Structures are given as C-alpha cells and as structure tokens.
Amino acid sequence: MQGDHGSVLSLFTGAGGLDLGLEYAGFETKACIEIDPFCADTLRENRPSWKQLDSGDVTVAARTVTPKHLGMKVGELDLVAGGPPCQPFSMAAQWASSGRRGMDDDRAQTVVAMLDLVEAFLPKALFIENVAGFLRGKISASPFISDRLAAINNKHGTAYDLHAKIVDAADYGVPQRRNRVIGIATRDGRAMEMPSPTHADAPVRAWDAIGDLAETDVPPIQGTWAELLASIPEGGNYQYLTARGGGEELFGYRTRYWSFLLKLAKDQPAWTLSASPGPSTGPFHWDNRPLTVRECLRLQTFPDEWHLVGPHRQRIKQAGNATPPLLAEVVGRALLAHLRGASPQGPEQGKPQLLRERQEERVPAAVPPAPVPERFRPLVGSKKAHPGAGKGPSPREAASSLSRGGSTRE
Q: Which one is catalytic: 32, 39, 86, 296?
C-alpha cells in the first residue's frame, strides 16, 4: 500500500461519489479523469487535492498516461476505479432494439480505454460500479472484459479474474432502492468477499435522509400532468390512476414508464434517482414537487458539505449519475481489508462513516391522495392496458404487432 492509504486512479469520476466513498474507506485518489466541465469544476471545488489529469477524455488518457505521471512504478498503484458510460448497457438500451448494441456502441470504447489503463498500471485491483446491464445480460461488457483481462494475464503474468455481483444500495444503508453491479478483479486472482447486507430488513428511509430539511428554494412542478401528483398516494405512480389502481381511471395499465408521476414514501427508501428527469419523471417529493439538489445528494448519501457546480439541470444530472458514496465506502472497506489480508468484516471495521441511521421517532403519516383535478375529469374512463408483459424488449416487440398506440412499459 501507499503509506497508510490505498492509492486510486479514478476514471469517469463524475461528481466524485465513488471516490468520496473510497476516501472514507481509506483510499486516496491520486488522480482522476473527468471530461464533463461541470463535474470537473465540482471536483475542483470539493477536493482540489484530487489531481485532474490534463486530458479528461479516458480514450486519450489511455494512450498518454503512465505510472510515471503519478510518481509511481508499474504495479505500485492499488486501484483503478470507475463506472464507464452506461448508456449502451442501460435499461433503456434493453428496451430499444436500435439501442441494444453493448460493446458495439461507439461509447463503449471507454471500456477499452479503461482496460488499456489497467494494462499500463497493473494495479492490485480493478473496481467497477455500474448499472446491472453493464456486467449482466445479453449486451453486457463482461465477456469482453474477461477476455481482455485474460490477455493481460498471459502477457504480464498477472491473474486478474472479474467477479461481479448485483446489489441493491438500500441493503447497505443507502436510503434509495438502486440496483447496481459491482465488479472486482484483483491482480493475484483472489476473489473478494462482498460485504453482507446490513439493512435488508430495516432499510434507511427517505424520511430519515431528508425529513429534517426545510427547503425554501424548491423547483416548481411543470408539464401537462404535474397537477395529478396530489392525486397519487405516497410511494405510488400513475398506475394508481389505472383500472388496477385505487384511484379513478385516467391511464391504461402499463402504458407509461414506471417513473411517470412516481412519488417517494416517507417510510420507505427512495426510488432510484434519475439523472435526466422529464417534467413528469419521478421520483417526486411526497409534497408533490420535484426534489431539490440537496435532497438528491442526501438520498445519494453525500455529506452536506459537498456542493455541486453548474446550472440546476446539470447539478441534478451530477447527483443522479453519482455512485452513492456510502455504497462505495462499504465495498471499499472490504476491498482495502482484502488487499491488506485482513478480515473484511472484522470488529475493527466499525460502522461506515457515511451511514445515516434510521430515526427512532415515528415517521409522519402519509397524506391521503386528493381527488382528480377538475380539468382532468374528461379523461376519466375505461382505458386499454398494454398487451405486453412490460418486462423488456421481447414483450415490447411482440406487443408492437398488436398495438401501435403507445410505448410502454411497467
């Protein structure tokens, strides 16, 4: 190890969620690569000690950056960490037949660059955090990564072997249901034991994270359907206003995206935050409005002193795209212990520093849904449900031959 800390080369650093969590776990970011100018400014404001390399483009850095740039020798770096752009492997790509390209997508060249940097540095470990489809499913990058790591092993005598697991961040104390895949490959080939869930039975709730905030500068509701939010119960979405919900029928069942008019419930973890929400895309606050940037950061487990730079939409994007720092801390602590040959869950570990515990006091009761506003009443009536199962591209393609009337989903 580099002194008392593990050393990290951070790729696709974004707003710094992964690095911040690793910092709390005992790692030190030696350098980071980030192409987005707003994210780069956020990193400079919050962690000027994190050296940003001259090129924020990972594909360029892969051709020019060497261990010498970090004052290191080959094999001395502890960790290459990051989450390559997820669009080619996202749920949206699974839905759209035109988008299911995976490693054939031009944006996936960042995966190639990531592995080029692994070969250049030969770190003790590689840490990937991403959407589940990145390392699971028909279009995942997993076969490519495994083949490339095997080639690196053959050439350099290493034993990198990628192990991946899909986790729900809420199981580790993040007040948000957020399924992510964690991929770890260690240079010596030893598989790391993933931390056991600590909050699966008693998750940290949205109220625990943001209930104490008194936000004054809140974003206004916008769009055609915004007034309907008050007519949907906490934790629900537009499906409440379908034939299978408890409200009046304004929409066909599964004829909209799951996040359409989706609301938080005080007594449950938040739904997954979106990086680019539309006017009707949730999750929305239980007070029937969009979430503030600070609320998003709390639900992602950033500490309050962490500030995002840029226009409002850019800050929402940074918050939604970030790795929850608490999740990174939990996995990072286990990884650092693994690299040091210590027990990943020994008593010396203690509680994660970024964990915000459940509050003991009772969560306020939910406000009952309001009647449908008068201007929407002409829309009330029987609606056709989506004919597919709403589970992915195959049902959607089959359904398209039966109905051209709407895109959907869940």
A: 86
